Structures are given as structure tokens and as C-alpha cells.
Amino acid sequence: MADDIRVDRSLPRLVIGLAIIVAGILFMLDNLGLVHAEHYLEYWPVVLVAIGVVQMVQTGSWVGYGWSLVWIVGGLWLLGQNIGLITISIWALWPLLLVLVGASIIWRACCPPVVRPSAGVQCCATTPGQPTEARVSASGVARSARESFVHAFAVLGAQERTVGTAEFRGADLVAFMGGCKLDLRRATMVGEEVVIDVLALMGGVDILIPESWTVDAKVLPVMGGLGDHTHPIVSGKPQRLVIRGLALMGGVEVKN
Fold first, then answer.
1. Is the pTM higher than 0.70?
2. Could you list the residue range(s) of the whole structural domain that residue 180 is in?
3. β pairing state of 213-222 and 149-155
4. Domain identity same for 176 and 88
5. Strand pairing partners for 220?
6. 55: Cβ contacts below 8 Å, ≥ 6 apart
7. Which of 151, 227, 237, 250 is the most exposed place for a label (fewest CB within 10 A)?
8. Among 60, 75, 93, residue at a domain's last position
């Protein structure tokens, strides 16, 4: 399993390394007068296509698939321009990036994550014939489930949330030209895995987690960055925090 993870993480480096080697060979042969490098350099967008394919193989979310298609279509479009098959400049289509970002925000707003009750709790729905105590208990469980899921939205400002609940079920964090900070160091995860959705659009998201959690970061950085500064778990069976989403001209950092 560890070998598979290591191979997956090395794929982008493999693509970039091969591209640099090929470019170096072409320039060397051009200096020696054996080939004309400019005849081959027009095919450089193939590298973008390869990066998109690698990203699609590695991604685990619909956002990742969408941006993988952007890399692939953009690379094919530039390649078509270079070889004369397409006459419309790809830079005329840059507003489509805004459309994709807006569509992702609308999707997240219309299809929020489903908050499930913890194992062993059976009452999320009641029938008219149930006793009042049962209906009250069911509503309390549903309210507790909602409260254990964090929603944070920062626009042109900052928002900080500290979670100390014993039943943390996930979060949805959006930072638009602002910052979100979520402190989970005193939280207890429900089950073995919890998902946090993030969107950092010209903003930053900071997440602090307990040392007993491990992180699986599936954030796609586009002119942005992802920083995983957590320490490895040396013993025990760690709980898994999945962080997925998009960092567009923004950044996401995770620390423990």
C-alpha cells in the first residue's frame, strides 16, 4: 500500500522530469546543428495534457476531475494552435475559469455534504405515533449532527472557528479574498474518516488538527499552494482526515 502511494505521488515529478530531459536533449542537438529545436518545441502543450491525465488518475473528487479536464483541453487547444488546426486564441476563453469557479461554488451551496448520525444512533426520523420523548430525542440527535458540522465563509475578512465537540463530522470552508482558520485540536472524530471541503479563492484556509489524525490532502492548487505540515503518526491506528477542494490563487495549510 505504501509503495502504491509513493508511486502515485511521484507521477507529476516523473512527467515534469521527462519534459525537462526532452527539452535539454533538443537544445543540445540544436546547438550541435543536428536538429532544429523550434520544429519540435511547438509540441510542448503535450506536457499540459500529460499533467491533466496524471491529475485525473490521482484525484478523488469531482472538482479534481473538472480541473484535470481544464489541463487536458487547454493543452490540446494550445497544441492545435501551434500546428495550425485552431485559429482562435485560448486566452480569449479565460472567462471560462470564472464560470467553473462559480459553478463549483453553486454546486457546493446546492448539494451540501450529508451529515450522518454516529453509529448506534437510530432515531433521525420519527412517526406520528411515537412518544413525545422519542420525537424530542430524534430532534436533539439531528440538531447535534448539524452543530458538529462546521460551515465557515470568509469574504474580505477573517473567520476563526474552534471545535471542541466529541462528534466532529466534517466542515465546509470557503475563503474569498479573506481567511478561514479551523482549530480541531480538541475535537474528536466520528468514525475513522471525516471529510473537509475547502475553497480558497484568492484567500487562505488554515486547519489545525490533533496529532493522532492523519491527513489525505486532495486539494487542487491552481496558481496557489497546499501545505501539509503535519507530523507522521508513529504508532496506533490513526483517524483519517480527507481535505478536498480547490486553491485558486490561494493557499491551504494543515498543521498538527
1. no
2. 149-255
3. unpaired
4. no
5. 246
6. 12, 64, 67, 68, 71, 220
7. 237
8. 93
